[in-house]
Amino acid sequence: MKKKILIIAGGFSREREISLRTARGVNREIKKKYITKICEPDGNLVKNLRNFKPNIVFNALHGRYGEDGYVQTILESEKIKYTHSGVLASSIAIDKEVSKKIFIKNKILTPKYLKFKFKKKLNKTEIINKVKKKIGFPAVIKPFNEGSSVEVYICKREIFYKNLLKLASYKEVMIEQYIPGREIQVAILGKKKLGAIELKPKRKFYDYEAKYNSKSKTEHIIPIKINQSYIDKVMNIALKAHIAIGCKGATRADFKFYKNKFYLLEINTQPGMTSLSLVPEIAKYNNMSFINLIDWMIKDASTNR
To answer: What does the pLDDT look like over 204-244, one tens digit per residue?
Structure first.
């Protein structure tokens, strides 16, 4: 009997389209081997789970509701095996402040930050002076719980306040120290260091467009042109962070390499699986095909993650 795999994709986050691309890519690879179905995480999710009775759920969601422990809680309550990280690790990793505190506690270098809460009355001069004193300019403004660099702004002092107001709907945001330097990404599978890749975006930084639009022409460099001892170091840091947060399955850690130091920006517990995605590219370079990567994730699936 073929196993049934339910691929949950789409959802309500800003990364909906990327999630659907991931689902289609995964489904193309596994539909001959398994009985598959793609399902939205809507109000009928529990009903669909009980009707389809999957052996395993492949979580292809990105961002809020799929990467923050919400869907994982439903799957745990239904006692269905699923891929990627569990409830707690997912909720920690997507919360940029909580994950930073864990990085700091584990002596993992990460950019300095401030939490900013929007109030009815904002004093522009006071805010700018505080950021200048605590963080410095340019500064990075980002939501606490979005992925794929959604609504991220790198700001000089002159445009900082204007961009800050663009995120007012979030109620509170993170203001982070801007680290220049090289973009390095590391893939972890379980407790295995899969590999690393460097990105050279043509855009200002590796933002949403640079990640998912082939026209952005982001250069992918693998192997990284750097001393092997540095590659070993960054992969060790990624694995340390993966374990510290309690991640399972595949993760991708985003770093900046500046003045011979690695700064960990965040860990992604639901890395993309599209044609432009980095984990499949790293896996391929390390002699692991796309189907073998997906198979690994399916075999790794469990409850109580």
So the answer is: 544 444 444 555 678 999 999 999 999 999 999 999 999 99
> How many CA atoms does the CB half-sphere of 162 hold within 13 Å?
6
Active site residue 272: yes
Q: Are 102 and 245 in contact (CB under 8 A)?
A: yes
Indicate whether 131 belongs to any domain: yes
pLDDT of 50 strictly over 90: yes
3-state secondary structure of 48: helix
Residue 149: which pLDDT band, with cuts at 50, 70 and 90? low
Q: Does 266 qualify as catalytic in the annotation?
A: yes
Q: Is 246 a catalytic residue?
A: no
What sign results for the dihedral spanned by CA atoms 133, 134, 140, 143? negative
Let me know how long the chain is: 305
Give tens-digit pLDDT for 61-103.
988 888 999 999 999 999 999 999 999 999 999 998 999 999 9
Q: Residue 194: its pLDDT value, please?
A: 97
- 32 lies in the same domain as 138: no
Q: Which two three-digit tokens encode residue 122?
A: 């904002």
Q: What is the mean pLDDT of the chain?
A: 91
Select which of 34, 82, 208, 212 is catalytic: 212
Q: Could you tell me if 140 and 248 lie in one domain?
A: no
158 burial (CB, 10 Å; 0-12 / 13-18 / 19+) is exposed
User: Is 295 annotated in the active site?
Assistant: no
